[in-house]
Write a structure and sequence with these properties.
The complex is a heterodimer. By secondary structure, chain A is of the alpha+beta class. Chain A is built from 7 helices and 5 strands. The two termini of chain A are 30 Å apart. Chain B has a two-stranded parallel sheet. In chain B, strands 2-3 form a two-stranded parallel ribbon. Chain B has 11 helices and 4 strands; from the N terminus they run αααααββααααββαα. The interface between A and B is large, with 82 and 71 residues.
Chain lengths: 214, 199
């Protein structure tokens, strides 16, 4: 979404409740419980959000995405059958529908090595503050946290953060791949060309996303 | 034309949320008390008033301010704030010459323990797309005019690091108590799209 155009101006409501509608509060709560209910994790939750149809992604806003990703995670883990939520919704509004039978449980065979996303790693960081680095073009399938607008660009390591599990593999239960994470600063002209507003954009990037600039 | 996946009579989000709840309850997978407790916690106890206390303390206690900038997570934890989306919090200091502003272009990551759940504009495509491309213009549209010589730094929260902006203490507040100062600090100032104004 970063850098895409056509969204208009930012609208700031004078005052707004934490949840605009009661269903948003429920979607939040189920989202907060989704990893536990599905036997998955936070990165898988984000990947379930990524996978929504672009129309659906936008149709019901932030908590609409949460509601949809909980359903995806529960279906993927064999807790609910595909279509179970919509069938129940139709039934609730009085339609005569047959609900699908429960599927075979299919939770991922996966155990985190610790709580949260931060990890200790034994290897020293590959890059030091001040090093020039380039982001990869990075078109692999599946989840990633390398935003599209920052791919194949050159920046400077500004800080070294605590090591973290790699979302690209963690979201798919392949491996935690704990690794160093760097704050990398990009000049606006590197991202947007010579006519860009002057500013610095800093992104937190996993070691796998970076290559050295000779 | 690209097909839209939903049929015209697709149940709306409110009804789908009710359906999901009914399926989960029926299977004994959720406890309504836990669900209500979570909602109540983020409606009442976890919000920008927490971050405002952190900021006011940093403004009045130089030693705390030093600790906060050095290890945000620990200093924030001293005031009892921790939990989901607060595993590692870094504090960015705004000064006369440097203005920090925070976004998550990917999914609206936000430092929950100190700011609560994000406001609508933070999650909106307009903010997420534009603040990383034309921040000065977006900030001006949101009511924050910055001098041309101010160094703007935009932070896109793309890992599990969360950011809290420490805004500048406004002029004319030397006599205010920590509590009175906390009452001035706004959510927008702690994201970096506003500044704290004197009473």
């Amino acid at each position: 979404m970063g850098g895409t155009q056509g969204w208009g101006t930012v609208k700031v409501p004078a005052d707004e409740p934490v949840f605009g509608e009661p269903w948003e509060a429920k979607a939040f709560a189920y989202g907060a419980l989704s990893a536990r209910l599905s036997g998955q994790n936070l990165d898988a939750m984000r990947h379930a959000i990524d996978r929504q149809h672009p129309h659906d992604y936008l149709a019901d806003g932030y908590y609409g995405r949460w509601l949809a990703c909980v359903e995806t995670m529960l279906v993927d883990s064999g807790v609910l059958a595909p279509g179970a939520v919509v069938a129940r919704a139709r039934k609730l509004r009085g339609e005569d529908v047959t609900e699908p039978p429960d599927p075979t449980p299919n939770k991922p065979d996966y155990q985190p090595t610790a709580g949260g996303s931060l990890r200790q790693v034994d290897t020293p960081p590959r890059f030091a503050v001040g090093d020039r680095v380039r982001t990869k073009a990075h078109a692999h399938a599946g989840h990633t946290r390398l935003p599209r607008y920052t791919r194949s660009h050159t920046g400077t390591v500004a800080a070294i953060h605590p090591a973290q599990v790699l979302p690209d593999t963690h979201a798919h239960f392949v491996a935690e791949n704990a690794q160093h994470v760097y704050a990398v600063a990009f000049d606006a002209t590197e991202l947007w060309g010579d006519g860009a507003e002057p500013f610095t954009l800093t992104l937190d990037l996993y070691d796998d996303y970076l290559e050295p600039v000779e | 034309m690209t097909a839209i996946t939903r049929p015209p009579d697709h149940p709306d989000a409110a009804l789908r949320a009710e359906a999901l709840e009914s399926l989960l309850l029926e299977r004994g997978l959720i406890d309504p008390k836990v669900v209500d407790g979570l909602i109540s916690r983020y409606e009442n106890d976890v919000g920008p008033m927490n971050g405002a206390r952190v900021v006011a303390k940093a403004w009045t206690d130089a030693e705390y301010r030093r600790r906060l900038l050095e290890d945000g997570t620990a200093a924030i934890g001293e005031l009892g704030y921790s939990g989901p989306q607060g595993e590692y919090i870094e504090v960015l200091e705004n000064t006369g010459g440097v203005h920090n502003v925070v976004v998550c272009t990917l999914c609206s990551c936000y430092p929950w323990p100190v700011l609560g759940l994000p406001p609508s504009w933070y999650k909106d495509p307009a903010y997420r797309s534009r603040i990383v491309r034309e921040p000065r213009r977006v900030l001006a549209e949101m009511g924050l005019e910055l001098d041309d010589d101010v160094d703007i730094r935009v932070w896109d929260s793309s890992s599990e690091v969360r950011y809290l902006v420490l805004p500048e203490r406004p002029e004319g507040t030397a006599d205010l108590s920590e509590e009175e100062l906390a009452a001035l600090v706004t959510r927008d100032a702690m994201v970096g799209v506003g500044r704290v104004t004197p009473p």
